[in-house]
Amino acid sequence: MARRKTVKRAQKSHKHLFSRNKKINKTQREQNKIPGWNKNISFTHNLNNLGMNTGYQINQKITNELKQKEQAPQQYIEAEEISIDQIKELQRQATAKLPQEEVEKKKNKVRMNIDDEWAIEGLVKKYKQDWEAMKRDHKLNTFQWTAIQCQKKYNDYIKRYGKCPKPQQ
How far is residue 110's CA from residue 2's CA, in Å, rounded to a whole number? Predict the structure, then answer.
């Protein structure tokens, strides 16, 4: 019984070789069917003889043009002379701080999600400014913010809208 299994395994292990040889034979047969195909010369020479290897010729032309450009003398462009003082002044201008108003505008821009706004509104209406209670409420605080995160979100909400939602009474 054990011997049969080993024989079957050996037969299975060689099957891939036979199928591969069949594929090679098919391509060789197809090449033999092409009129003007010569087995004794290389693949590229056969394509050249049949007029099919234009891509190779185009690549050769491109490489020849690149070689000619490399061999050509390099041309230099004259530039204006700039003093060190001018360079330092340009650096100062590039690294100069923005006016104070623009900095404040950028700081005041708060990016809040609609969901964040909804959650903060609900939490503030229910708990006012009790951050620990906000942290524990898992129904309204769906994002599970910590007490500090709740406080920051509340401050961002006030920066954006200028007022807080009215708490329930």
Answer: 76
